[in-house]
Automatic annotation (TrEMBL):
InterPro entries: ASADH-related (IPR051823), Asp-semialdehyde_DH_CS (IPR000319), Asp_semi-ald_DH_pep-lack (IPR005676), NAD(P)-bd_dom_sf (IPR036291), Semialdehyde_DH_NAD-bd (IPR000534), Semialdhyde_DH_dimer_dom (IPR012280). Keywords: Amino-acid biosynthesis, Methionine biosynthesis, NADP, Oxidoreductase, Threonine biosynthesis. The keyword Magnesium does not apply. Gene3D superfamilies: Dihydrodipicolinate Reductase, domain 2 (3.30.360.10), NAD(P)-binding Rossmann-like Domain (3.40.50.720). GO terms for molecular function: aspartate-semialdehyde dehydrogenase activity; NAD binding; NADP binding; protein dimerization activity. The gene is asd. The keyword Oxidoreductase applies. Pathway: Amino-acid biosynthesis; L-threonine biosynthesis; L-threonine from L-aspartate: step 2/5; Amino-acid biosynthesis; L-methionine biosynthesis via de novo pathway; L-homoserine from L-aspartate: step 2/3. One of its GO terms (biological process) is threonine biosynthetic process. Belongs to the aspartate-semialdehyde dehydrogenase family. This is aspartate-semialdehyde dehydrogenase. The lineage of its organism: Bacteria, Bacillati, Bacillota, Clostridia, Lachnospirales. It comes from Oribacterium sinus F0268. It holds the Pfam family Semialdhyde_dhC. Residues 5-137 form the Semialdehyde dehydrogenase NAD-binding domain.
Length: 360
């Protein structure tokens, strides 16, 4: 198959760098453009990033000499592209505006940003959970006046370690959850070299994360209607989000109540058998096993499990009865792979599979 020509907006930041490494050898997509702020424009990718490469994986050789374009010059960037990934680092209103500008230039935008997550006609999707929400794209295209262009977003990285379990257990009607997330520093675009004060430290506040953790699952788990997404009813989430001295991997501890009676063994069986469209269609970035359940008391742990299924799988463990709630468990997801760029790439593959992204 002839590869789709793709661009990365915000290519010099940590998520942009992760997109670059994931797409360098992708079987469907070929990076044809890198774009960033005006200060990087005209430099090679290698020059623009300089000493700010933050990943353990090296910069892809084939991208080092690619000249970076000015992300604000939309018409220049989109020449010859089939769609773009967005990881731009701007103020929320600026992100909204520039992503809409790319969509109106008839280029689909698969965004890692939060700016459009609550725009009524923009789908916010975890491909294994709610791909039917992509039907919003037709409504969005009517608003934008486009034939090809649209914006699709993925949810916040902090919900990936527990929302899949809530989706898998939907038949048992979870209705109350208390959640604590222990979030890696790469979620802030940092590593230990650039954030040395996080070594041996915990920060009990991450701006905006608790609101996202409580509200975004209600949209992901909601129902598509012709009028928009009907939020999940009867489910209340209470979250605390803490920054911990871990490079990659968001851990969540969750206590949960169900309306229907269920056993521990039934819950575990459902997790292990849960799959979605990416698994059924065998998409390139899809984990073969979306959710693994681990029996050991000391798992999931970041060191042993964060890279499960190349960082695209979810790890659940320590499911047990709770004194106040019905059950409690621990979840783990890779925040810059499943939670960010990897989730974006899987979203794009899903959009191609469903026919929303086509070659020009």
């Amino acid at each position: 198959m002839e590869k789709f020509k793709v661009g990365i907006l915000g290519a010099t930041g940590m998520v942009g760098q992760r997109f670059a490494t994931l797409l360098a050898e992708h079987p469907w997509f070929e990076v044809a453009c890198l774009a960033a702020s005006p200060r990087s424009s005209g430099l090679t990718y290698e020059e623009a990033v300089g000493d700010r490469w933050k990943l353990e994986e090296p910069m892809p050789e084939k991208l080092k000499k690619m000249v970076v374009k000015d992300v604000s010059k939309v018409e220049d960037v989109v020449q010859g592209l089939d769609f773009v990934f967005s990881a731009v680092d701007m103020k929320k209103e600026e992100i909204k505006a520039i992503e809409e500008a790319y969509a109106k230039a008839e280029v689909p935008v698969v965004s890692n940003n939060s700016a459009h997550r609550w725009t009524e006609d923009v789908p916010m999707v975890v491909p294994e959970i709610n791909p039917e929400h992509y039907q919003l794209i037709e409504k969005q295209r009517k608003r934008l006046g486009t034939k090809r262009g649209f914006i699709a977003v993925k949810p916040n990285c902090s919900i990936q370690s527990y929302a899949p379990a809530l989706a898998a257990w939907a038949e048992y009607e979870p209705y109350e959850c208390v959640i604590s997330t222990y979030q890696a520093i790469s979620g802030a675009g940092k590593n230990f070299e650039t954030w040395p004060e996080m070594v041996g430290n915990i920060i009990p506040y991450i701006g905006g994360e608790e609101e996202k953790s409580e509200k975004e699952p209600l949209r992901v788990l909601g129902t598509y209607t012709e009028d928009g997404i009907k939020l999940k009813e009867g489910l209340v989430l209470s979250a605390q989000c803490i920054r911990v001295p871990v490079l990659n991997g968001h851990t969540a501890t969750v206590s949960i109540r169900f309306r229907k009676k269920v056993t521990k063994d039934e819950l575990i069986s459902v997790l292990r058998n849960y799959k979605g469209l990416p698994q059924e269609k065998n998409l390139p970035s899809a984990p073969k096993q979306f959710i693994q359940y681990l029996e050991e008391d000391n798992r999931p742990s970041v060191l042993t499990d964060v890279n499960f299924e190349k960082g695209m799988g979810i790890s659940i463990g320590r499911l047990r009865e709770d004194n106040l709630f019905d059950f409690k468990f621990v979840g783990l997801s890779h925040n810059t792979l499943r939670g960010a760029a990897g989730g974006g790439v899987l979203s794009a593959e899903t959009l191609v599979e469903l026919g929303y992204i086509q070659k020009r």
